Amino acid sequence: MSARQDDLVRKVAAEFVGTAFLVATVIGSGIMATNLTSDVGLQLLANSLITGGMLVALILTLQPVSAAFNPVVTAVEAFFGGVSWRDAACFAAAQVAGGALGAVVANLMFDLDAISISTRDRSGSGLWIGEVIATLGLVIVIFGSIRSGRTETIAFAVAGYIVAAYWFTSSTSFANPAVTFARMFSDTFAGIAPASVPMFLAMQVVGAGLAVVLVRVLYPAATLTQTPESVPQPSA
User: Fold this and answer.
1) Strand, coil or helix: what is 169?
2) Domain spans of the chain?
3) Long-range CB pairs of 34-41, under 8 A, 24+ apart, other chains included
4) Which of 21, 25, 84, 110 could form a disulfide bond with 54, CB atoms 3.0-4.6 angstroms apart?
5) How far apart, in whole angstroms, are the C-alpha atoms of residue 236 and residue 233?
6) Alpha carbon distance 174, 207 (integer Å)
7) Strand, helix or coil at 118?
C-alpha cells in the first residue's frame, strides 16, 4: 500500500469512527434524557449540551487525521480544492456508514431494537428554513475559522454553534446529511421519519451553497490553510 493509500485509509477510518460516535451521542443522549425526565425543555438541553461536549472531544482527538463528520462540509472543502472529489466521495461514504452504525449501537445500548424506523414527522416550511440556516451557519463557522488561520479554535467554535443552533433553529439543527440519514433508524427523541428526510437533505445542500458564497465574500483573498478533514463537524 502506498503512502497516499495508507493516508486515505486512515482518514476514511477517522471519518467512520467519528461520525459513529457523534450519532451514538445524539441518539443515546436523547434516549437517556427522555428516560430521566418528561420535561421536553430539559430533554433538549441535555441533548444539546452532551452533543456539544462530544463534538469538542471528537474534533480535538481526530482533527490531526480527519474530522469533518459531515458530507456537506466535505463537499464544500472539495469545492474549495482542499480535497479531491474522489477522496471526498470516500469520506462521505464513511460518514454515512459510520452514522448508521452509531444509530444501531445507540439503540442497542438502551435495549431497543437494533433498527426501529422513526415515526417522528419533521416537515413544514419553518423547519426547512431552520435547516438552511443551521447548515449555513455551521459551514461559515468552520471555513471562517480555517480561512482566518484559527484552526485551533474549531473544536470549540463548532461545538458552541451546534449547542446554540439546537435552540435557535426551528429544526434543532440537524445540519448534516449523514446524521440526518442515521436518525431515521431510531424511533426515539432524536429520530426523524423517512418521509421527512429528503427535504432536510435538500435544505442542507441549499444552506451549504449559500455558505460558499458568503465565505467567498467574507474571506475573498484567503486560501484554505488546513483541510476540514482535519477539522469537522456535525450536528445533530
Assistant:
1) coil
2) 3-230
3) 34/188, 34/189, 35/110
4) 25
5) 10
6) 12
7) coil
Residue 195 backbone dihedrals phi, psi, to 5 degrees: -65, -20
Report if pTM > 0.90.
yes
Q: Which helix (H) or strand (E) holds 93?
A: helix 85-109
Measuring CA to CA, which residue among 157, 153, 152, 166 is closest to residue 139? 157
Sign of the torsion formed by the C-alpha atoms of 167, 172, 177 and 183 = positive
What does the pLDDT look like over 70-102, one tens digit per residue? 999 999 999 999 999 999 999 999 999 999 999
Nearest to 183 by CA among 102, 88, 78, 80: 102
For the domain spanning 3-230, the CATH number is: 1.20.1080.10
E strand or H helix that includes residue 104: helix 85-109
